[in-house]
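Is this the right way to post structure tokens for a design question? Let me know if I should format differently. Anyway, here goes:
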């Protein structure tokens, strides 16, 4: 949770960069301009608006990812590889399964977070004054229970692909470090013991880059959908905004760069965050194994 407090302002900047309307000129010219305008309009408090939702979600997300990853690995091991080590492809499948399951939990939390991260407009808006509970009530009143899973396709693609890359990159880097350790010690033992702390941090950092960069366009589309004014009456003339329609509109208006708006600041915060998460995970796993 301490890490989430540190990185939350950067997440706010990312969401505001991603969710700019598909019109030119853009409101923000880049991360630094977004930081400057956001700080001028709301100060540090504005950058932390909505932080309560991800503080709850951070613990749920991380525990859900690692728990479902372990269960998926054990299931694959007992079903398909009862007498052999789980291959790398099996680890990738376990990562994808953990991400898919976690996306169901994350979408409602991120919807509330994104609704609160919307920048204030030139005119007063009721949404700008609403807290998390008021937003939850508003979503339920206008869209019912299914409304909390708005943007689920984006979360599913991001978490399924991203978790495959996250766990896969970490396992690949860990195997690389263990292989080097065995070569140096000329040991024939398959298990080289726990990685050194700097190796855990390096593997976690690579995992963070893989997760944040490879499926970032899905996160951009999700942010656009989840920052819509959900209390506004739906237009009967315009078709409903879907994952596909928003993605195509972003591509036509801004090309690939529009789908990667805010990616740099996201990767920068993911490197230390992911490194610390995996180092803590390895430490706890060793202690309670």
């Amino acid at each position: 949770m301490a890490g989430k407090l540190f990185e939350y302002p950067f997440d706010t900047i990312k969401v505001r960069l991603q969710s700019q309307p598909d019109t030119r000129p853009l409101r923000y010219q880049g991360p630094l301009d977004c930081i400057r305008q956001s700080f001028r309009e709301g100060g540090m408090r504005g950058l932390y608006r909505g932080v309560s939702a991800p503080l709850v979600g951070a613990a749920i997300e991380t525990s859900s990812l690692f728990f479902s990853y372990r269960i998926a690995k054990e299931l694959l091991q007992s079903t398909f590889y009862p007498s052999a080590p789980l291959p790398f492809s099996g680890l990738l499948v376990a990562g994808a399964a953990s991400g898919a399951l976690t996306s169901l939990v994350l979408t409602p939390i991120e919807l509330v977070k994104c609704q609160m991260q919307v920048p204030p407009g030139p005119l007063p808006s009721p949404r700008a004054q609403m807290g998390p509970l008021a937003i939850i009530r508003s979503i339920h009143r206008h869209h019912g229970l299914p409304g909390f899973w708005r943007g689920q396709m984006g979360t599913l693609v991001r978490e399924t692909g991203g978790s495959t890359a996250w766990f896969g990159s970490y396992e690949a880097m860990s195997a690389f470090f263990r292989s080097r350790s065995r070569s140096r010690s000329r040991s024939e033992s398959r298990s080289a013991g726990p990685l050194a702390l700097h190796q855990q941090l390096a593997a976690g950092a690579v995992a963070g880059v893989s997760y944040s960069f490879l499926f970032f366009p899905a996160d951009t589309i999700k942010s656009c959908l989840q920052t819509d004014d959900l209390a506004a009456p739906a237009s009967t003339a315009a078709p409903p905004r879907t994952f596909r329609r928003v993605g195509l509109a972003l591509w036509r208006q801004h090309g690939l760069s529009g789908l990667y708006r805010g990616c740099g600041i996201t990767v920068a915060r993911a490197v230390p965050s992911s490194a610390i998460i995996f180092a803590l995970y390895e430490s706890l796993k060793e202690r309670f194994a």
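Format looks fine. Someone answered above. Worth noting: Residues 208 and 274 are 5 Å apart (CA to CA). DSSP finds ten helices and no strands in the chain.
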